[in-house]
Amino acid sequence: MAVRIRVGLSRAAVCVAGTEAVLKIKDQQTGEVATDRETGESLYTVTVMLMEDGRAEIMKITVPESGLAAGLKPGAVVRPVELFATPWARIFNGQLSDGVAYRAARLELVVTETAQ
User: Fold this and answer.
1) Residue 60 and residue 46 in contact, taking contact as beta carbons nearer than 8 Å
2) Which of 21, 51, 104, 116 is the most buried (most CB within 10 A)?
3) For every residue of the chain, which 3-state class applies, written as one string?
């Protein structure tokens, strides 16, 4: 069983969508779409830039279709809700690959105040 770690972002953290939501493909050969194990909903990936404490990191966050905010587009400020990280590792062609997969229940648009 994979370890899921709840990710808590500070109030100062800002997340900006870098891409449109892209349908997640489970099998590149067959084109099978990745779905949520419990609901059967299609899954999407959104690349997000997380800026916090003078640092910026790029994260790819998987979100179910119902968790995509209307109006989500590159440049939109978003807030991941129920964000979890799952470390992973696999051997492919004799080489170890590893990383962290991010999953959120939804991405909410953050309304920012503009200067008057």
Assistant:
1) yes
2) 104
3) CCCCEECCCCCCCEEEECCCCEECEEECCCCEECECCCCCCEEEEEEEEEEECCEEEEEEEEEEHHHECCCCCCCCEEEEECCEEEEEEEEECCEEEEEEEEECCEEEECCCCCCC
Burial of residue 3 (number of CB atoms within 10 Å: 0-12, 13-18, 19+): exposed
The tens digit of pLDDT for each residue in 53-96 reads: 889 999 999 999 999 999 999 999 999 999 999 998 989 889 99
22-50 pLDDT tens trace: 999 998 899 999 999 889 999 999 999 99
> Kind of pairing, strands 95-103 and 55-64?
parallel
* Angle at alpha carbon of residue 46, lines to 55 and 56, rounded to 5°: 5
In this prediction, residue 115 carries a pLDDT of: 45
Q: pTM for this one? A: 0.86
The span from the first CA to the last CA of the chain, in angstroms, equals 52
Place of tokens 């995509």: 68
